[in-house]
Design goal:
Strand content: 25-35%
CATH superfamily: tt1808, chain A
Number of helices: 4
Structural class: alpha+beta
Distance between the termini: 48 Å
Number of domains: 1
Oligomer: single chain
CATH class: Alpha Beta
CATH architecture: Alpha-Beta Complex
Radius of gyration: 17 Å
Largest sheet: 6 strands, mixed
CATH topology: tt1808, chain A
Length: 191
């Protein structure tokens, strides 16, 4: 008799691969980063509010123009055998929708948004950013709830270059989603 998914024990290994990650129970709070299973705690309510506001603006923009698809965490994005992440928000242009498989996104989205939190900021800013750039993410947004800022980094030969940084007031403008402008204060406004 097998254990229910919530009681499943994860075998200890030095390096985990996608095959190990794929057998975790659905909804398990992990990402596969550098061959390690990194626990991702539930986001704070403020994190969720920021995400919801940003998702709404991006979703409305791409839906009105039939540009592609926006997906929200948790959704697995497979990059390499030891790298499978769950970005807060991803966008994939219509022409590249075939990278969407039943269980995962197989390859780099065109746009990735990460909302920083104390437990995952290091990974979002360092390890994950390098993998995103190496695999061709065209635009990487870093949202910092602490200083109420949004940065847009643009892919340049397997690296990112900072394109814009707006703190508290001003509009952020996407390059991948030409015409999308978001007032930063609207994203961080208090409840």
């Amino acid at each position: 008799m097998s254990l229910p998914a919530r009681e499943m024990e994860i075998p200890q290994k030095e390096v985990y691969t996608y095959a190990d990650y794929a057998i975790l129970p659905e909804g398990a709070p992990y990402q596969l980063i550098g061959g390690k299973l990194v626990m991702t705690p539930a986001p704070t309510t403020y994190h969720q509010i920021i995400c919801m506001r940003l998702e709404g603006k991006i979703l409305n923009f791409i839906t009105e123009r039939d540009l592609g698809l926006v997906l929200f965490a948790p959704v697995d994005v497979y990059f390499e055998e030891q790298e499978t992440y769950q970005p807060d928000i991803i966008f994939i242009v219509k022409e590249r929708l075939p990278i969407i498989e039943h269980a995962r996104i197989n390859g780099a989205p065109d746009l990735v948004v990460e909302i920083l939190s104390p437990s995952t900021a290091y990974y979002d800013l360092k390890k994950k950013a390098r993998i995103y750039a190496r695999h061709g993410v065209r635009e990487y947004w870093i949202i910092d709830p602490e200083d109420k800022s949004i940065e847009i980094h643009v892919g340049q030969k397997e690296k990112f270059g900072l394109n814009q940084r707006i703190e508290e007031n001003g509009k952020i403008k996407s390059l991948v989603l030409d015409g999308l402008e978001i007032e930063v204060r609207d994203i961080f406004a208090q409840i």
